[in-house]
Each structure stands twice: as C-alpha cells, then as structure tokens.
C-alpha cells in the first residue's frame, strides 16, 4: 500500500549544504526509501536562479519518491550568513539572528502544528539527514546518537540550553540516556562548552533586541 507523502521544507536550498540535502532527501536517505515526499525549497531572492536550477535537476532526475506539489512536517533551516574577512563574530551572529527570525515567523504561518525544525547552519547535509532519519524512524535497539536538544538539566547542563546529549529515539520522540559515567576531563570540557553556549545565547538575544 502506498504511504502518505510527507512535506519537507528546506530553507537555503540553493546553497551548498541545502543542495546536497535536497538530493539526499529525494533519494530517500532521510526518511527511508519507501516514503513519498513533497519537497518545498526556499532561498533568498538573489539565489532564485540557482534555486530554479536545483528544481530542474530534481525534475530531470525524476526521483520516484518525489511527488508533485499545506502543512510542512519537517523544516531544515540551512541558510545562514557566511563570515567574511574583517567581520566580527557579533556582526555575523546579528545577521544570522535576523535571518532565522524571519524564517521562523514565516514558518509559523505555514508549518503543520507538529513540525520538526532543524536549524542546521553548521552541520553538513548528510549529518542533517542522519539526524532526522534517527529522529523520525527511531534509533536501532541498543544504540543511541548524540543530538543537540533542549537541556532539562541532565548531566548538570543548565536547563534551557541547546546542548548535545546522548539520546535514543522512538516514535518521533527523543529521550536522554541517563547515568553515563563522566570523568574529570570530560566534565571540564562539558562545563566549558556550557559556558560558551550560555555566552552565545546571551549574544544572540542581544542581537534580537
Ligand atoms: C552564521 O551562519 C553561518 C552559515 O550558516 C555559520 O557558518 C556561522 O557559524 C554562523 N555564525 C554565527 C556567529 O552564528
Ligand atoms: C530529563 O529527561 C530524561 C528523558 O529525556 C529523563 O530521563 C530525566 O530524568 C530528565 N532529567 C531531569 C533532571 O529532569
């Protein structure tokens, strides 16, 4: 029996990571080889021509999973501003924040209530694909993965930070693996990372106001 198609939105689809990502999605790497997909691709106006090129390539390749094209279920936000020479970290962050902010409000209007948002400026397309694959389809019994998720205070990571945790996934939900031993070396690194992320969060908020 044919499965229902799922709508996937890729923002920044004409960029290098976005381009690789849409191809992988079309090939079934993200959601499985039997899941039909309706793909929505967005990018900024200067990338319109490149985006059209991506679309033509997808049509030419005639991927069997791609269905003709509301309610987006999975959103991959890849677009960000590349750091150019002479730019301060804060300048780039401020550009990124305004990009993500406008994307997020656009998304709120169109996304299905249950939408999964993957804000992935840094990770490469295949990592993004694997991530959503594990999230949606579940991690194999007895294995886990690392995912950047909201901290609930596990492993003494400040609650509310987006932090990488060991997780298992089942039915589209993740759960943090508890009780792994942490040696002194790792503890120090984890605390330093938490500190950095806290500073980054403060910086991002200051760009918002
Ligand atoms: C901004 O986004 C770019 C590209 O997506 C990313 O490489 C960079 O690390 C981000 N910079 C900051 C400061 O958020
Ligand atoms: C955090 O969530 C995990 C499941 O993801 C749960 O096992 C754990 O008890 C929670 N920890 C705290 C401190 O709430």
From TrEMBL:
One of its GO terms (molecular function) is L-malate dehydrogenase (NAD+) activity. The chain crosses the membrane at residues 7-33. Its EC number is 1.1.1.37. GO terms for biological process: malate metabolic process. Gene3D superfamilies: NAD(P)-binding Rossmann-like Domain (3.40.50.720). Residues 75-203 form the Lactate/malate dehydrogenase C-terminal domain. Signal peptide: none annotated. Keywords: Membrane, NAD, Oxidoreductase, Transmembrane, Transmembrane helix. It is an enzyme of class 1 (oxidoreductase). Belongs to the LDH/MDH superfamily. MDH type 2 family. This is malate dehydrogenase. It comes from Spirodela intermedia (Intermediate duckweed). The lineage of its organism: Eukaryota, Viridiplantae, Streptophyta, Embryophyta, Tracheophyta.
């Amino acid at each position: 029996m044919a499965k229902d198609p799922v709508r996937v939105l890729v923002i920044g689809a004409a960029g290098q990571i976005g381009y690789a990502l849409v191809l992988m999605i079309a090939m079934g790497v993200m959601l499985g080889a039997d899941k039909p997909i309706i793909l929505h691709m967005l990018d900024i106006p200067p990338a319109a021509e490149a985006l059209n090129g991506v679309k033509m390539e997808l049509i030419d390749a005639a991927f069997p999973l791609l269905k003709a094209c509301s309610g987006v279920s999975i959103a991959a936000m890849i677009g960000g501003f590349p750091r150019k020479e002479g730019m301060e970290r804060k300048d780039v962050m401020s550009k990124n924040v305004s990009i993500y902010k406008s994307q997020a409000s656009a998304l709120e209007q169109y996304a299905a209530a249950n939408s999964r948002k993957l804000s992935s400026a840094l990770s490469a397309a295949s990592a993004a694909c694997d991530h959503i694959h594990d999230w949606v389809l579940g991690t194999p019994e007895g294995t886990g993965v690392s995912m950047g998720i909201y901290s609930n205070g596990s492993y003494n990571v400040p609650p509310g930070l987006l932090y990488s945790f060991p997780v298992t996934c089942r039915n589209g939900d993740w759960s943090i693996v508890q009780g792994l031993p942490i040696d002194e070396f790792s503890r120090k690194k984890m605390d330093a990372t938490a500190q950095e992320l806290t500073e980054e969060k403060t910086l991002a908020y200051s760009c918002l106001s």
